[in-house]
Specification:
This protein has two domains: 51 residues, no CATH class; 85 residues, Ribosomal Protein L30, Chain: A, CATH 3.30.1390. 29% of the residues lie in helices and 18% in strands. The strands form two sheets. The chain has a four-stranded mixed sheet. The chain is elongated.
Amino acid sequence: MASKLDLFEILLMEGQYAHLPICFPTHKLRSNLRRRATFCPTICKTLFPSFPGIKLIKKNYMSAFNAFKANVPVAWSPNLYITLVRGIPGTRRLHRRTLEALRLTKCNRTVMRWNTPTVRGMIQQAKRLVVVETEEMYNARKQKEASHRSLRPPLVWNHQPFPGPESSA
């Protein structure tokens, strides 16, 4: 439990919600103080099971990384699926070479690599350009996309006039 708490600093709110702690990531504490609190029950239950009403401060903005939310629990996998989510132009030469070594040449392309220390080091070097998924996460995301694209029953509209109350005039 202590390892999960190392990433967060607990602050108490003043006023009406003084009994509920708020979790701030310690490395982003100043920027998150300006953002509004949002309730995240799954993270709060895993971090602090004794407090049911914990609020987690998180950034609310669009990002290329938001499309890759884990649909399954994160577990160790022998293969990693690496997707380039930011473009190559404007990046450092060393990072471009790293992406070329990973065979990531175009944005939104996914490659599968073995989970080795070499590959993990390359990912660490270009971590702001890529998204990493395990095999289970990748398969769950593809299954979710396929179910979203699958055929659904058609919408049927009935344009007959609504039978209102019959008036005897």
